[in-house]
Amino acid sequence: MTTTDFPVSGPVLVAGAGVSGLGAAQLLARTELAFAVADDNGEKLAQIAEIAGPHYLGGVSTADAERKIGDYQTVVTSPGWRPDSPLLVAAADAGCDVIGDVELCFRLDRAGVFGPPRDWLVVTGTNGKTTTTGMLAAIMQEAGAYTGKHAVACGNIGVAVGDALTAPERVDVLVVELSSFQLHWSDTLTPDAGVLLNLAEDHIDWHGSFDAYASAKAKVFGSSVAVAGIDDSQVHAYADRSERDGIIGFTLNEPQAGQVGIIGGTIVSRIGESADGAASPVEITPLDGIEPAGQAGVLDALAAAAVAITQGASPEHIHRGLHGYQVSGHRGAVVHTGGGVTWVDNSKATNPHAADSALRGAATGNGSNQSKVVWVAGGQLKGAEVDELVAKHAHRFRAVALLGVDREQIARAVDKHAPGIPVFLTESTDPEDAMRAAVEFAAQQARQGDSVILAPAAASLDMYSGMAERGNIFASSARALDGNLDA
Question: Does the domain formed by 12-104 have CATH 3.40.50.720?
Answer without folding.
Answer: yes
